[in-house]
Amino acid sequence: MPSSKNVLQSSGDVMKKPMEIQPTNNDVTRVNDATLRQFLGYHMKRAFNVVQADLLRTLKPFELRMLTYTALVLITDNPGLRQSQLAAAMDIERPNLVVILDELERRELILRERVPTDRRAYALAPTLAGRQLCDKAVAAVTAHENRLLEHLDQDARAAVEAAMKLIEKGAGRG
Q1: Domains of the chain
Q2: Model confidence pLDDT, tens digit, residues 35-71
Q3: For residue 161, how many other CB atoms are within 10 A of its CB?
Q4: pLDDT score of 160 more than 60
Q5: How far is CA 44 from the centre of its chain?
Q6: Locations of Polar residues compositional bias (predicted)?
Q7: Of 134, 138, 112, nearest to 125 (Cα)?
Q8: % of the chain beyond a pLDDT of 70
Q9: Nearest-CA neighbor of 110 among 141, 77, 149, 140?
Q10: CB 64 within 8 A of CB 72
C-alpha cells in the first residue's frame, strides 16, 4: 500500500511532501471571546455557570441536585400536584421525571398516590421529612442567591428578573 506521501506525489497535487507542523511558542495565555461577548445569551450562560456551580455546592449537604431540589420545592408548594403537571412546570419529559421522583420517593421525601378519579395518574405530596428538608434547602438557596447577588441593588435585581421574564415570554413566539 502506498504511503500518503506517495499518493500525494503521484496524484499530481501541488504539494509534493506532507506538510510539517512546526511547534510554536505562541501559547494562548488569554482566550479572546470578544465575538461571543456581543451576544447576551453568552453572558447569560456564563452567569448561569457561576450560579449553577455555587448552587451545586449549596445543595450538596442536602444530597439534592438542581432537578431534585426543584421537584421537591414544587411538590411541597403544591401538594396533590400530578406528575404530568410537575413535568410541565419543570419543562422536562415525563420519563425523565420518573427518575427524579424515584429518587425522592426512595429517600422518603415524597409520596406518590394514585388519583382516585384517574387510576392512571399519581398525585404527589411531600412527607414530613420532605417538608423539613425542603425548608432547610430553601433557606440555604436563599442565602446562596443573596451572596451571589449582593453587589446588585434592588433596582438592578428587578431589572434582571424583568428581562429574564420577557425573554421567557418571548420564547413562545415564532
Answers
A1: 61-174 (1.10.10.10)
A2: 999 999 999 999 999 999 999 999 999 999 999 999 9
A3: 10
A4: yes
A5: 12
A6: 1-12
A7: 112
A8: 83
A9: 77
A10: yes
